[in-house]
Amino acid sequence: MKKLNKLLASLGVFILLLVVTSCSENEVEPLFDQSINERTDALTSEYVDVLTAPENGWIGYYSPNANFGAYTMLIDFETNGDVTVDSDYEAGAYNNTLTYRLGKTLKIELVFESTSAFSEIFSLYNNNNGGEFVFNILSATEDEVVLESKLDYGDDVTILTLNRASVEDLDLTNIYASVTNIATNFTESSFRNVLLNDETIASFDFDSESRIATISYFDENGDFQSITSPIVITAEGFYFLNEVEVNGTLLTSFVFDEDDLIYVNDADGLKIVYQDIPGPLKPYDFGLDGNGRYNYLELEKSSTKFNNFWLDEQWEFYVGTGYVYYTSTYYLRDLDSSLSYIQFYIADGATGDLAYTVWYDFTYEIKEDGKVYFTLTGDTNASAEDDALLVDLIEVILGSESGYYIADTGGLLAYSNGTFSLINADEPTYNTNYYDF
């Protein structure tokens, strides 16, 4: 009986296998009527048709990473493999016609094959800016193309959305002018503040290279706060990519007022203006960390007016057999001791070798107003010729009767050293950057 049951079970399994085999051979249809290569070629051809269709090309706003502002990109594809990429990056310096191709890895990818604004942004900070010139095509319709960075990993993956460009979009002249307007203009002042109903609520700083705006303020508990946000620059003004809130006030977008040369948001009662009195400055413990020196590695952290003053002055005179000039380095020394001095390095103009140094002793005091005040003590090794050449410079960097505001400016781009600025309260167009070492 047991043998019979086993035989019947085996027959059942065999019959079931016959049924399954019969269904597999006769009832299951192929999922695709084309091979994978044929389907890829068809999709690629469809994408080329979409990309090349708009008469005026495409417009998008490109930001390589979450900590970088957005640039206007005008992209016009041709069926012959050429593509024109125009941008407001560096005022159009890298506007160019280059080649592109569509390829296939895991997805259909779009590759910009030679120099353009994309490749230049990619190359910033030793190719460590999170930029891209290779994109995956996520979707493509007649009105919108959505691109995803092929080079990004993790949570910060760039998405570039392109829409059909209009004839008006093709002229970037007004955007170039708008970029100039928002770039920090230290000929006005070192202080740019945000006003709500004409009352200062925050300070506004802008890095023209990264297009990052920094909003600094004191919160309701009196603690210093600083918010950074990338911005998009338009022909009329700019808007924040991310929400910025200052003690309950939202900062969204601003329009440039050509008459008063300020940024306004009339609907919210907001302005961004230059003022002689600073808004909130990040505190810095001046003198407690030892030495500081003026640093030319980060020109953008000193004011344009000071840089021009330093570069335009002729710190040069004839000595013996050749010219001697004052180099672009000087030191504020030993600020944590009772004997502080400023030291100038003087090099031979013919060889560049150090000729000698000039120093002046000074004292300083930080008063209740938070500013630092310098006093020259008269102790110096300077000759009368040195004094005559250096008098204007020393007046700017040490001689303000109203003192100097102290602002923490972060750190060196490539190093861990902290940096700070001293802003001349009598002439706030003079903003001099130092770093601790």
Compute the average pLDDT. 82
Question: What low-confidence regions span 5 or more consecutive residues with pLDDT below 50?
Answer: 1-9, 13-26, 317-328
Structural class: alpha+beta
Helix percentage range: 10-25%
Q: So how many helices? A: 6
The CA-CA distance between the termini, in Å, is 97 Å
How much of the sequence lies in strands comes to: 35-45%
Radius of gyration from the alpha-carbon trace, in angstroms: 32 Å
Q: What is the chains' assembly state?
A: single chain
Envelope shape: elongated
Largest sheet: 9 strands, antiparallel
Q: Tally of extended strands? A: 25
Characteristics of this structure?
alpha+beta, 437 residues, 25 strands, 20% helix, single chain, elongated, 6 helices, 42% strand, eight-stranded antiparallel barrel, nine-stranded antiparallel beta sheet
Give your account of this protein's structure.
This protein is an alpha+beta fold. The protein has 6 helices and 25 strands. The strands form 3 sheets. Strands 17, 18, 19, 20, 21, 22, 23, 24 and 25 form a 9-stranded antiparallel sheet that branches. The chain has an 8-stranded antiparallel beta barrel with strand order 1-2-3-4-5-6-7-8. Strand 2 (71-77) and strand 3 (82-87) form a beta hairpin. The radius of gyration is 32 Å and the shape is elongated. Residues 1-9, 13-26 and 317-328 have low confidence and may be disordered.
In brief:
20% of the residues lie in helices and 42% in strands. The protein is an alpha+beta fold.
